[in-house]
């Protein structure tokens, strides 16, 4: 055993106290946390085991350079009015994610739905006087109150996944600019509203329609009048799908102010930026919409694989549409200690506008896999839940990995190709488990 191994601390926090130079503090708002990447470079197996608090039975299967899941999380909880346990990444604009273990519910409570804002939310909102305008390439332009929507169209309730396109950005190397989301910029609440397609049909969309353009009441961070923080849209074929809602309720209650009250779009399976909050207008256009966050590199990825850190010309980016297949372990919480050799694992899986066919789990760093029980989605656009009982052959440090495969045969990868904006990270979710003897 090396001298370094002999001196290795017995726990995670002792390690950081004794090795402050490896902590590399990063600050998001008032929250700070250590960057754990690379802190074990050059360390022996004994050092790694000591820091993790136990032996690693399947260490021979660990991919080279892998950072243990035990060190992948750890942000402190920050209180937000009407929210429970979210972690703030930025307070101007407000952006906050939900730790995976707080997403265990089949239907995400409003208190635990993540927040992704681009500007300053409106204040003093009057639901009764709020209006939505439908115009552009339509034969029957309309301005509707929320009561008009409720009275003139079928009101439906659907469980729908909303996920930020940058969910998982924190795990890209080299770092991509933007909020460093880990796993929690996703949710599946129950939304009540009217179908976007029904409203567009009532407005009589013209044959030349190509794209919708969405506008909202939030203000640009600069405060400049008329400058929009974000205005995205959808191809007309997607907009006419029956899964998209103009929503005025979340989980049977009015929308949370940070989630778009009193009216928003919910477009499941596509980046959350398509689900415009504080919705005031939908314009039908004869071209791809060119509003803020629709052009340049925003919500776009390269049209080909690129090397990490490679510079990519703007014209070589394409707009993100459907989100990739993905899964999330919600129980156990990472860094759980287990007495005994069995553990129930639970979580959710989703795949853009496709269905998930299977979820598999591994406890030996991907050497072998077992099938989890997987539910059907409650409706189109909802996530699916999975559960399984896993067994551990002996005490020590383990990781539970989850891998989903969709109905087109596409599976999650262990690691994905880098892209400049850090979008679409659907690599395996890993949680750390220490089994005590």
Automatic annotation (TrEMBL):
Keyword Nucleotide-binding: no
Domain Moybdenum cofactor oxidoreductase dimerisation, first and last residues per copy: 319-434
Keyword Metal-binding: yes
SUPFAM superfamilies: E set domains (SSF81296), Oxidoreductase molybdopterin-binding domain (SSF56524)
Listed Gene3D superfamilies: 2.60.40.650, Oxidoreductase, molybdopterin-binding domain (3.90.420.10)
UniProt keyword list: Metal-binding, Molybdenum, Oxidoreductase, Signal
A Pfam family matched in the record: Oxidored_molyb
Coiled-coil intervals: none
UniProt cofactor(s): Mo-molybdopterin
EC main group: oxidoreductase
EC number assigned by the record: 1.8.-.-
Name the record gives this protein: Sulfoxide reductase catalytic subunit YedY
Organism: Grimontia marina
Source taxonomy: Bacteria, Pseudomonadati, Pseudomonadota, Gammaproteobacteria, Vibrionales
């Amino acid at each position: 055993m090396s001298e370094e191994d002999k001196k290795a601390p017995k726990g995670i926090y002792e390690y950081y106290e004794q090795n402050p130079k490896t902590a590399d503090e990063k600050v998001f708002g008032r929250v700070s946390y250590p960057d754990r990447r690379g802190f074990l470079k050059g360390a022996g197996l004994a050092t790694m085991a000591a820091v993790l608090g136990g032996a690693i039975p399947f260490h021979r299967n660990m991919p080279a350079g892998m950072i243990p899941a035990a060190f992948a999380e750890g942000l402190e909880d920050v209180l937000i009015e009407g929210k429970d346990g979210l972690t703030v990444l930025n307070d101007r604009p407000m952006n906050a994610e939900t730790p995976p273990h707080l997403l265990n519910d089949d239907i995400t409570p409003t208190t635990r739905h993540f927040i992704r804002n681009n500007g300053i939310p409106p204040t003093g909102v009057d639901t009764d006087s709020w209006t939505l305008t439908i115009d552009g390439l339509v034969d029957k332009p309309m301005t509707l109150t929320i009561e008009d929507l409720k009275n003139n169209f079928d009101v439906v309730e659907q469980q729908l996944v909303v996920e930020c396109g940058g969910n998982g950005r924190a795990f890209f190397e080299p770092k991509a600019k933007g909020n460093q989301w880990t796993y929690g910029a996703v949710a599946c609440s129950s939304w009540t509203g009217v179908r976007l397609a029904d409203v567009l049909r009532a407005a009589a969309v013209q044959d030349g329609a190509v794209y919708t353009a969405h506008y909202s009441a939030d203000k640009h961070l600069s405060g400049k009048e008329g400058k929009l923080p974000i205005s995205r849209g959808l191809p007309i074929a997607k907009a006419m799908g029956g899964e998209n809602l103009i929503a005025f309720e979340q989980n049977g209650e009015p929308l949370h102010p940070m989630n778009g009250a009193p009216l928003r779009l919910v477009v499941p399976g596509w980046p959350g930026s398509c689900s415009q909050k504080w919705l005031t207008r939908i314009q039908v256009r004869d071209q791809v919409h060119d509003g803020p966050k629709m052009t340049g590199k925003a919500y776009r990825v390269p049209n080909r694989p690129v090397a990490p850190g490679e510079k990519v010309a703007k014209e070589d980016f394409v707009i993100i549409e459907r989100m990739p297949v993905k899964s999330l372990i919600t129980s156990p919480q990472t860094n759980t200690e287990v007495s005994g050799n069995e553990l129930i694992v639970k979580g959710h899986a989703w795949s853009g506008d496709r269905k998930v066919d299977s979820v598999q789990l591994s406890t030996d760093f991907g050497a072998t896999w077992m099938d989890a029980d997987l539910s059907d989605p409650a409706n189109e656009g909802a996530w699916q839940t999975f559960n399984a009982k896993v067994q551990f052959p002996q005490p020590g440090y383990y990781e539970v990995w989850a891998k989903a495969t969709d109905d087109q045969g596409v599976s999650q990868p262990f690691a994905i190709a880098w892209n400049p904006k850090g979008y679409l990270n659907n690599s395996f979710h890993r949680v750390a488990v220490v089994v005590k003897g």
